[in-house]
Design goal:
By secondary structure, the chain is α+β, with helices and mostly antiparallel strands. It is built from six helices and twelve strands.
């Protein structure tokens, strides 16, 4: 898996070989978006960029040439053995992949790289108005999700039928709960609120102290709020380490 980052932050030291970094100012990036999408994109708060996630395939089409899939993800993630979960069988059977069962996962989502599918966000009524508005609308997890997931309170049999009839993009979509962001709204794997207090990364495998299974990735959204000014780039670089609510540690 390769990653592309556009940012006005300085290039960190020790940059991995599978990450391409493009330095660009916020103003220049807004101009790029405006040109690529044919809109007037001029927000004040950079957090507005989150609304654009489903449109990255059009905005950055030059960066994804030759790839079967492209996606978007947050940078506060620890990935495990990705291909153990995103196998050839899984990817061959779908055009879209979400790590949430009931909506688009804004911190990790994949789209098959075709010109038609890369324009899927345009099927959302009012997408242009949302993008041009300076306020953040959580477009990726709300309005964009409506193309794939509805009828949430219906029985499974009727939900599947209705989705097939009225949500054509859902027919080749995999939405499966990966329990990637513990401690928020949804319960843990066993249905309780007993979430892991430690996560372990060993030779590419991601586990924790609450389950003996591997996980696709861990989103440390909640924990990083406790870390203050601690720099996550100071994390251990060995083949095994641990992370908890106080930060990264050698294992």
């Amino acid at each position: 898996m390769d990653y592309v980052i556009y940012s006005d932050n300085p290039l960190p030291k020790g940059w991995p070989a599978n990450i391409t970094y493009h330095y660009i100012s916020f103003d220049d990036y807004k101009n790029l978006v405006s040109q690529r999408l044919g809109i007037r994109f001029n927000p004040i708060n950079p957090y507005k960029l989150c609304d654009l996630k489903p449109a990255y395939g059009m905005i950055h089409d030059n960066d994804i040439k030759g790839y079967d899939f492209w996606g978007f993800c947050d940078i506060d993630l620890i990935f495990g053995n990705i291909r153990k979960f995103l196998t050839h069988n899984v990817l061959n059977s779908c055009d879209f992949y979400s790590a949430y069962e009931r909506r688009v996962s804004g911190h990790f989502f994949l789209t098959r790289n075709t010109p038609e599918l890369n324009k899927s966000f345009m099927k959302v009524d009012g997408w242009r108005k949302v993008f041009e508005d300076v306020e953040h609308h959580c477009f990726d997890e709300r309005a964009f999700s409506s193309l794939f997931v509805k009828f949430k309170n219906h029985p499974a049999w009727s939900k599947n039928i209705l989705s097939w009839l009225f949500l054509p993009l859902s027919r080749r979509s995999v939405f499966e709960e990966q329990y990637s962001t513990p401690g928020l709204r949804y319960n843990w794997v066993d249905g309780t609120r007993d979430f892991p207090t430690e996560w372990y990364w060993r030779d590419g495998a991601l586990t924790n102290n609450a389950s003996d299974r591997e996980f696709l990735y861990f989103h440390f959204l909640k924990w990083k709020r406790n870390w203050g000014g601690k720099n996550s780039r100071d994390a251990p670089t060995s083949i095994k380490w641990m992370v908890d609510d106080s930060g990264f540690h050698s294992a």
